Task: structure prediction
Amino acid sequence: MPHKPQPRKPSVITGRGSRKRDEDSGTDVGEGADDWAQSKATIRPPDQLDLTDAELKEEITRILTANNPHAPHNIVRFSFKEGTYKLIGFVNQLAVHYSHIGNLIPKDSDEGRRQHYQDELVTGSQESARLVFSDTENLEEEEEIKEGDAEVESQIDIPAAEASEKVIEEELMTPKQPKESKLTNQFNFSERASQTVNNPLRDRECQMEPPPRANFSATANQWEIYDAYMEELEKQEKTKEKEKTKTPVAKKMGAMAMRKMTSLESQSDDITKVMQAAKIVERMVNQNTYDDVAQDFKYYEDAADEYRDQEGTLLPLWKFQTDKAKRLAVTALSWNPKYKDLFAVGHGSYDFMKQSRGMLLLYSMKNPSFPEYAFSSDSGIMCLDMHMDHPYLVVVGHYDGNVAIYNLKKPHSQPIFRSSAKSGKHTDPVWQVKWQKDDMDNNLNFFSVSSDGRIVSWTLVKSELVHTDVIKLKVEGSTLEGPEGLQLYTVGCGTAFDFHREIDYMFLVGTEEGKIYKCSKSYSSQFLDTYDAHNMAVDAVSWNPYHSKVFISCSSDWTVKIWDHTVKTPMFIYDLNSAVGDVAWAPYSSTVFAAVSTNGKTHVFDLSINKYEAICNQPVVAKKKNKITHVQFNPVHPIIIVGDDRGHVTCLKLSPNLRKMPKEKKGQEVQKGPAVEIAKLDKLLNLVREVKPKT
Result:
């Protein structure tokens, strides 16, 4: 059994009983109290400090702070930026001593409003009951007074309607309760068609009864029609009320304004609805109109090529022109990298004495009668390029030195980006622009070359164009000593450039002096190499799409030259007896290219068939009236497009001899691909040293 502790007896007992015992024992009470006080004063804890009176009287102030004394101050975390552990300066000082989840409800909530409304109902009913009882007491007193007066007066009976008095008393006795407004419950949703209360019918000229709500087969469309009808009816009633208050003059003006607004809205709505259908119908009509051309494009192959000795022809297909670009030359051509039937045409003027407006047009082979997109500019467009990854972005260079970017997704007349004098525009015409890979921050950028000798890199940063001068062209050997030791040099005028397909930093620049410079994006003060290419301005320069060492150039000195960039002399030279406006490599072969001259002819070469002369020389336009300015191969179809100085673009189909593929050998598969094309061109370059080409 556990031992139960006994209660401890108090050593000092105060009160009446203690006084009585003291009297009985004969002991003085005052003496015992003094002993108890002395014993109590001497008791103190063993660890108490012995302080003097001055120390006891000294006031010690304590400052309360929000810092948590138990919070750690030596927390460290790893910094990936510096690669070491860093001490954290900020420590959370919050210490929660007490938390309690309450049941308070905000007044603005639905439950708060509901409870407040119920409280008002209870208090209102109590007050109305009090008022009713007070009114009944007053009426009883008045009735007693009236009865006494009647007995005093000659006991005359006054006629009264007992039934009406009873009704009044009942109405007064029953407290009036206000109507409770039903609060909607978002968690207790009911289908509208399953509700049984019917709306009243309209007493109008044309009554429209809603579908019965008890009918579960009533569809949502019927209710939408009914609601729209009722909303329109309410609008009509409101407008009628407003018209009643208007003056006759205001009514006439309002009616005219309403007619104009409705006509404009209906026109815009009709145009947007019909636009897509009209475009399809227009293409269908054009397909029927140019059905023979479409058949030739798809199926026709010139059978006479079998009887020609390694020669080919060009079959004219469509001719693209519009009245908007009258008297404007074709200054640039470019196929869309995604939609192979779409190409862009830049219109301007090469005559500096006849500079006017410019046009950017985009045609589709599905609709040769009218351009798909049209943009106008104040200055002539001299060059353009379409982005490979974003085919809806088109960059153009103007004759006044500006560059601009158009977005085909927003077909309005203004470009989304445009350079200015503040943003570093060129001071001379921009002759070529090229999109490049995005920079380190994934910003779009492109390059431009101009007659002012600057090659500029443009970057699209947010909503503006940021420019950086990559290199400034200088004519070698033209540096002169000026006064006070100043060095003067002649600025080189850039006319064309092209970037290497594999080496990102390397590019070629052609100049008006006839030289071609091999440059690098990393060096802004010197060239990697210089080629004495032509005697007149270089009109175009282009790297071979297959062979990384070969590029081609053309000039107004009537020549086309093919180069190996590791050798300073040309590998092939061709004289076309007229100024050459443009040259382009074929996308399907490393040895096929086309050139156009100002005498109206298109020349197609295939080095694997004939190294000495073109296998096709065909006039495309009238010799004296017109000049061809540009040429481009389609990336997929066996066609080319050529532009002239009258704004016309002609589409031509290559005959089978102009696009010969390797022949099949018995027991061997036909080898295709870039490696075969590179080997084919390498073989020709090696033969150049043995057989000198004719000029």
Summary: Residues 130 and 175 are 9 Å apart (CA to CA).
